[in-house]
User: What shape does this take?
Amino acid sequence: MGRQNHDLTEAQWQALVATWGGCAYCGRTDGALQKDCMLPIANGGRYTLTNVVPACPSCNASKCSTEVTTWLRRKRMDEPAFLARQLEVLRRLQPEVPD
Ligand SMILES: [Zn+2]
Assistant: This one.
């Protein structure tokens, strides 16, 4: 595997957690949230503001290294709602994200 560029800062991570207000997938607020890469590292994803969401241990373990939309469909979760929320969070954190 090539070099990984882990450029998510601690401040960005805290902002992500605060803006999502819980697990990005199921909304749980209890327990420690973990950094989940929507595009898994194994698939070329990186720890960046646009690729990381907070996930509870249960969702993180279930999703593992599955690509996020594949996993959401498998879990029958609301994929469009998740993607819209994710874009909204990014817009709040970095206003320069294009439409
Ligand atoms: Zn969860």
In short: The chain is about 40% helix and 10% strand. Helices lie at 10-20, 57-63, 68-74, 79-93.
